[in-house]
Amino acid sequence: MKYQVIIIGGGPAGYTAAESAGKAGLSVLLIERNTVGGVCLNEGCVPTKTLLYSAKTYDTVRHAARYAVDVSPELSFNLPKAVARKGKVVRKLTLGIKARLAAANVTLVTGEAYIESQTAVRCGETSYECDYLILCTGSETLIPPIPGVDKVSYWTHREALDCKERPASLAVIGGGVIGMEFASFFNSIGTDVTVVEMADEILGGMDREIAAALRAEYTKRGVRFLLGTGVTDLAPSGPEGEKVRYAYKEGEGEADRLLLSVGRRPAETGYGLENLPLERTEKGTVKVDGQMRTSLPNVYACGDLTGRSMLAHTAVREAEVAVHSILGRTDSMSYRAVPSVVYTNPEVAGVGETEESASAKGLRFRTVKAPMTYSGRFVAENEGINGLCKILLDERERIIGAHVLGNPASEIITLAATAIELGLTAEEWKRIIFPHPTAGEIFRELLG
Known about the structure:
The chain is α/β, with parallel strands linked by helices. 32% of the residues lie in helices and 25% in strands. Strands 1, 2, 3, 4, 5, 6 and 16 form a seven-stranded mixed sheet that branches. β12 (243-248) and β13 (251-255) form a beta hairpin. The radius of gyration is 23 Å and the shape is globular.
């Protein structure tokens, strides 16, 4: 059976490429081993944000008195119902993706794809041929080689998402985005949370001042942070070994549950990638050009497999670029303005250069910053919270970075991403009319 395009992996990159190619009139086969939507929709971005919104709503109601609203003293959080709602949201969005693929005449096959050559893929007992192959195999959870990890019961994000009984205590190994989002969720519903991070600050790669401010906020809420701390040993603990003991150089701790969230790595095993002589980067990831082509001209790679930016929204754009290349349209991938968001409460978002990355590159820049309370809308909706916003400008006064702590950082960061991608100067960005009152006006306030 012959298709013009075969896509392996049905996550954000895969289903976006399939829909785009199908709409353009190409014959498309999409092979996904599990459920369409990938990790992001089924056990990552969407389900975590659904649970986090439930926790945020709970936080809001608990502190409703700040906004002149009296609530019943019998307030409680129903974790099983929150998990059930999460499942409903995922199912609804999965059906939506399937409907869009069907409308684009995409053939969807569920099963294990095995690459036989750059033009041939087998799934089960059926072999398929193609003109173009797009690899979107995604990523998998990295399990750190901590001594004793094979002797204890631990959670990855997958198990944490399906938890229906609140643990009294939780140790989170890894203070990155995933770790902090789960720390936020469980802290909100009353779990005693400890975050153990090997680096000297949480959220590596994000603006350091913003990360420190978020850590300070969660420290006030009772989260314990062990920075610069590597776990040296894990072992069962408690009367029947139902708890986990974690040891580190300075001491040890104990928790009812252990969450491992030290990162993810490209998923490469089991797909037959070894049958493709793909050129690799110095880091060992699949090398691609600006059109997402690999060293084999008819083979493309998008999403986490490239290791460039392991974010769903980056994968979507990479998939669009790849399909445009196949169609002969002029397009290229830019990573200059990829927003990153941490959906804690308050949210953190950043795009472009941080002060640390700009300094490391030897860039000449200046920083302007102010509390989010410079925005009237923010003050009206965030009682007792200051937040922080900062903008980086280069020597020509172009916007090269922006970072926000405070709700709704995730919604307003695109304003800054647009300015960075378009190369706007402070004066040019200031000419844009910002609606009033909005939280996004904070950027205009900083521009002077």
